[in-house]
Model the fold of this input.
Amino acid sequence: MPRTTSALAVLLATAVLLVAAGDGAANRISSSNEQFRIVYSPLRFRARGGTEISCNATLEGTLINGGVLNKIFGGQYGFIIRADRSSCAIRFLTETLSWPIILTGFVGMLPNIAGINTRIEIFRFAWTGFFSDCLYESTSTSRQPLNWFLNAAGLLTSVEMSPAWIPSKTLGCEEIEVRGTGTATIRGGATQLTMTLI
Done:
């Protein structure tokens, strides 16, 4: 075999090993705390016809396995265990809690990610009207995205409910788009969370 061909083969083999090692070295997500609180000021709810309601809202939850999770897309990431809002026409259906959080992807290039993409598997709320409530529930084709954004040090800077249309279970009620960007801290405190791949 010519020397140049042999050298090229060695370089290719080394590259494959480095890629494999890099991917294998970052197969879990570690959080500085398993308990979290997300505050939205505000969270916006907009009907297809254009009517919009803005509410200050708080979501609280917990990450599974002590905050150290396997990097498996479609796997369980955590739960929303409390949902509350300021006085407005939106009411979270808290009797249906807890709501599972599912891992769906990453923002940026591994292993230096800029965010973690998840979805709220079950998301239920009501819009109170003049005569009746419109009930809403996410479905298999309309899950509510919940995206966690990090700075270069892994500090959680914001958690975004990306726009998603949630259908109504009540006849005659329009779909609702939910969106908002919130700040996250450890539940019961003011310390920001950090999230890294390990």
Observations:
- The chain has one domain: 26-197.
- The first strand starts at residue 28 and ends at 31.
- Confidence is low (pLDDT under 50) at residues 3-24.
- The longest helix spans residues 3-25.
